[in-house]
TrEMBL record:
Protein name: Membrane protein, conserved
Ranges annotated as spanning the membrane: 28-52, 77-98, 110-130, 137-156, 192-214, 226-249, 315-334, 354-370, 376-394, 406-427, 433-455
Gene Ontology, cellular component aspect: membrane
Record's keyword terms, sorted: Membrane, Transmembrane, Transmembrane helix, Transport
Topology versus the membrane: Multi-pass membrane protein
Length: 459
């Protein structure tokens, strides 16, 4: 049982500790400091409560997710909304994971769809080959990801401390590093809202994954202990990513400063480094900037490190491989859980459902090479993730389940209010792709309106 607990902890960690821990959450740990970190613990605990409740629902009843939704909560339509959200998250995660892989090999953005295609094919192939060993397989990848992420954070810290010598560069770096542990930074309402929504996204709520996980969790396994371990890992990895960005800021400033002073470096290359530094500076100082506008700033780090720090190739490879493995574990779990849900709903075989989910993920990831389309899909989780979490948690209110209905209702209210606020900011954004992305997110909720039809059809 100890082995199962260990594997389940890393299975859930592999899903929770994904690309968002690198791309989004560090921004708020730097701009808000310890006050922001303490506030972020509230949505983290809310997410943990929902994860535990959802997994326990199928663990105790031994229902599969569609059976639970149909027989217990009488809401079979909800699963279709969850599956559509899952497939969009699969495509988005695949694209940004492949982005990191492209930077390792020095490839342009035009090759990202090819890498995304290969990533999903690899994931499907590994799931087909793993068969009954899927749990062990995903756990091994999760362990490698955690080790690589921590190792890259320590390496960047050591390299930055040894090579950042320019006074202004050291000042920027020390300011960003000290911000993470500061209680003096101001909070903004909009920034805190974005942080709360980002936490919900990072925990993977809204895709129905935890109901599926609970359906095959051993009855004697204590999920509370497993989730406690995941909670600690989530905090450690998010803070490690924040320090990675903070130390990279000093390297970025020094790199562009030296480039402008070196006549052998072309002006366009110097300007490129200056723009990357500005992106990182804005990321670490502007809490109100939309997460959609900041999500790609993390990829500036390899640009400013390459050729400007010792062992840059190893460092970049380790950092981007950490990001890729973080995405890969999430991708594999999304494909596996999505295929199980699809198999239940459509009565398909395992290979057929794996193939279908994989193809949808490929289409979304491939389409994201177009800038406006990428913005549209990235907006979806930030616009409706909290609302999707409300949809996902609604079955917990069923009288046949033993959860505290008052607590569940309070959590759903918190999610609903934050979800409406995030949706409002997306719908009123000046950019049209952002508005379209928010509308697309609302479309995911349309199946909920057809619940009565599905109940009649099943009768």
């Amino acid at each position: 049982m100890r082995k199962i607990s260990f594997l389940m902890a890393f299975l859930i960690a592999g899903y929770v500790l994904g690309i968002w821990n690198f791309l989004v959450l560090p921004k708020y740990y730097i701009t808000f400091g310890l006050k922001g970190f303490l506030i972020s613990l509230i949505p983290m605990l809310v997410a943990m409560f929902l994860i535990y409740s959802e997994a326990e629902s199928t663990k105790k009843t031994r229902y599969l997710i569609y059976e639970l939704f149909f027989k217990i909560s009488r809401t079979p339509a909800l699963i279709f909304s969850l599956m559509m959200f899952l497939m969009i998250m699969l495509g988005v995660t695949t694209y940004y994971s492949s982005y990191g892989l492209a930077l390792i090999f020095g490839m342009g953005s035009m090759y990202i769809p090819i890498l995304a295609l290969g990533t999903i094919l690899l994931s499907v192939l590994m799931l087909v080959m793993a068969k009954g060993r899927t749990l062990e397989f995903i756990s091994v990848i999760s362990i490698l990801f955690v080790l690589f992420a921590l190792a890259s954070a320590f390496m960047i810290r050591n390299q930055a401390l040894s090579m950042v010598t320019a006074p202004q560069a050291a000042q920027y770096m020390e300011g960003a590093v000290s911000s993470i542990t500061s209680f003096d930074l101001p909070l903004t309402m909009r920034g805190v809202l974005f942080m709360v929504v980002s936490v919900f996204i990072s925990f993977g709520l809204g895709a129905g994954v935890y109901y599926v996980l609970g359906s095959f969790t051993p009855e004697e396994l204590d999920l509370r202990k497993v989730l406690a371990a995941v909670f600690v890992l989530q905090i450690i990895l998010s803070l490690a990513a924040a320090f990675t960005v903070a130390y990279s800021l000093g390297a970025a400033y020094q790199a562009y400063g030296e480039a402008f002073q070196n006549p052998n470096i072309p002006a366009d290359e110097s300007m490129k480094l200056f723009m990357k530094f500005n992106d990182l500076k804005d990321y670490t100082t502007n809490s109100e900037k939309s997460p959609m506008d900041s999500i790609e700033v993390f990829y500036s780090i390899p640009v400013v490190l390459r050729g400007n720090v010792p062992n840059d190739t190893t460092l970049i490879a380790l950092l981007m491989l950490s990001l890729y493995l973080a995405g890969l574990t999430t991708i594999i779990i999304l494909i596996e859980m999505g295929s199980q849900m699809l198999s239940e709903v459509m009565q398909l075989g395992r290979n057929q459902s794996l193939g279908f989910v994989g193809i949808i993920g490929m289409i979304v990831a491939g389409a994201m090479v177009v800038g406006d389309v990428r913005t549209m899909f990235v907006v979806v989780p930030f616009a409706v993730a909290a609302l999707m979490a409300v949809v996902e948690s609604y079955p917990l209110l069923s009288s046949e389940l033993t959860h505290n209905k008052a607590v569940v209702s309070a959590v759903m209210l918190l999610l609903f209010v934050s979800g409406l606020a995030a949706l409002y900011y997306s719908l009123t954004a000046p950019k049209m792709p952002v508005k379209i992305g928010a509308v697309l997110g609302l479309v995911l909720l349309v199946p909920v309106l057809m619940n009565g039809m599905l109940l009649k059809a099943r009768r």
